[in-house]
Amino acid sequence: MTLLSRTLLTSIVATAALASAVPASASTLADPAARRLDSITLEGHGYGHGHGLSQYGAEGAAREGLSTGQILRFYYPGTKVGRLGGTVRVLLTDLDDRLVVKAQSSLTVAKVGSGRHRTRAIDAKATWWRVVPDGTTNRVERRRGGSWKLWRSVAGDVEFAADAPLTVKTADGEVQYRGTLRSVRSEATPEGREIVNHVSLENYLRGVVPREVPALWHGAAVRAQAIAARTYAAFERADARGAAYDLCDTAACQVYGGASAEHPASDAAVKATAGQVLTEGGEPIFAQFSASNGGWTAAGDYDYLPAQEDPYDGWSGNPYTDWTATLTAADIEAQWPAIGDLTGITIDQRDGNGEWGGRVLSMTIAGTAGSVVVSGATFRTRFGLRETWFQLA
User: What pTM value is reported for the model?
Assistant: First the structure.
């Protein structure tokens, strides 16, 4: 899947207790004279949401001799192993609405929905091909020399395919993708386009696993990641995010780098676990994972995502077990200007699991003009913190 000098707060109204929450221990900053704080320092644990598999925890467990199956049973208790295949549709977020593909001898173009009929993109002088939205029509163009020339117009969505990986031009260079590439109408903005990679589930995993964990980690940990990532993709496919795609290619889904990201070691892990997914009731589970849980997993929305102490996450090579971050008063005041000058912060509710009482559920931010109650998740998001498990240092 990836930040308060000590004083005492004047007066803060605590939020109503949540069913699973516990009152926070003395995690308060304030100044009796209500003077403005200059900065706030936090110390915390973990990186990510903490649900399910900890990637650094899996590596720590593998280093202690746990097998792939033992790692998965620890992080997803009560699940079984099933098998799934097929294809997935991946939204490529770093491409604009113009799909630009390098010319190759086997390149073909097809109108989406036209069955098996494909037209070979033949032009011996062409170096690149692209799809340019033009109202309800798409212009398929090829680059000859220094200029683009119209090849033909297509009413509807367009797909490129080839016998070898397709090379796509991005803002940062070139990326290769297996499968096919489609330029499709965006449901969010009908006048726009989305670029979607249709690829087999196994080839998709080859571009995901080495982007999620180091390919040269212990084999048991990389295989556990492969099964978790395959399961996550299968779950999302069954609950498709949009009519045109199942997943995106960023950490909001799973990081996917296409064929350009593939590595022999992670390829071996994908092959060794081919088709394997974790199931409950015969269906793929929501196999969430994050970089590090800091030593305690966070409860998810399903029984197989419990809150539990993790003895494997804190091995010496994990850089996210402990962290610190500093925010200035100006940073915080800019997010909640109605408070005036920042005078204090109190952590009101935690989840009750782990050091300091666990992850922050709610907190109060006070200033000379008022106060605001926010969730730990909101505070984390606003400032890009690694986790909601933190205390005031």
Answer: 0.88
